[in-house]
Write a structure and sequence with these properties.
This protein is α+β, with helices and mostly antiparallel strands. The protein has one domain: NADH Oxidase. About 35% of the residues lie in helices and about 20% in strands. The chain is built from six helices and seven strands, in the order H-E-H-E-H-H-E-H-E-H-E-E-E. A hairpin with a 2-residue loop joins strand 6 and strand 7. The longest helix is centred in the middle third of the chain and has 21 residues. It is globular. The two termini are about 30 Å apart. The structure holds flavin mononucleotide. The site of flavin mononucleotide has 9 residues, from strand 4.
């Protein structure tokens, strides 16, 4: 699949099942991530795989985070949180390890990790796998970050849920790009 086709036909897939990418294919996805643009060659991205029974342990980490942030969370709410990582056979946590740098602010390090995440989604789609980029409260929780060996100032840019689509995804209509042409200060014209 050529790149333009991959970009035009990629759509998030929420309903995922086995098999997940593994072996050489999985390595290709990670290499696609590591090929992202990266100011200062800081290699800020961190890729952490969660699969098999570790997904249940991640569910416990998610539920503990919810119990901390919402002490009045009910048992069904905690159970829903606990089950979230079971929505796909593989979760690829994409994080940015953020360092103080004189030329590369934190946002650029996080953007590089975001570009890595998108590269991975496209590579997964091109290899015939389904994927969905998710975040939610756990992404911003210091306890969840710590469970992955990340510092509070690091960023979880996404939990990429990966596997095989249960059903073929319908083509998704995409919005027309909103672009303007700039001719000078204050002079923006529609294309
Ligand atoms: C940074 C980021 C975080 C996201 N987090 C969630 C999420 O937690 N839950 C969710 O349902 N969709 C989330 N999405 C949106 C989906 O990944 C997806 O992009 C959206 O459903 C539109 O589908 P599409 O990718 O086919 O355009 C997130 C997207 C991005 C870029």
């Amino acid at each position: 699949m050529d790149l333009t086709t991959a970009i035009q036909t990629r759509a998030s897939v929420g309903a995922l099942t086995e098999p997940a990418p593994e072996g050489a294919v999985l390595m290709r996805l990670l290499e696609a991530g590591a090929a992202a643009p990266d100011h200062g060659r800081l290699r800020p991205w961190r890729f952490i795989l969660v699969r098999g029974a570790a997904r249940e342990r991640l569910g416990a980490v998610f539920a503990a985070a919810l119990a901390r942030s919402v002490p009045e969370a009910t048992a069904p709410m905690l159970e829903r949180e606990r089950a979230k990582p079971l929505r796909a056979p593989l979760i690829l946590v994409v994080a940015a390890h953020v360092v103080a740098h004189p030329k590369v602010p934190a946002i650029e390090q996080i953007l590089a990790a975001g570009a890595a995440a998108q590269n991975i989604l496209l590579a997964a789609h091109a290899a015939g796998f389904g994927a969905m980029w998710r975040t939610g409260e756990p992404s911003y929780d210091a306890g969840v970050k710590a469970a992955f060996g990340l510092a509070p100032e690091d960023a979880i840019v996404g939990f990429l849920y990966l596997g095989t689509a249960r059903e073929a995804a319908a083509p998704r209509p995409r919005p027309a790009p909103e672009a303007r042409e700039w001719a000078g200060p204050g002079a923006l014209r529609p294309l």
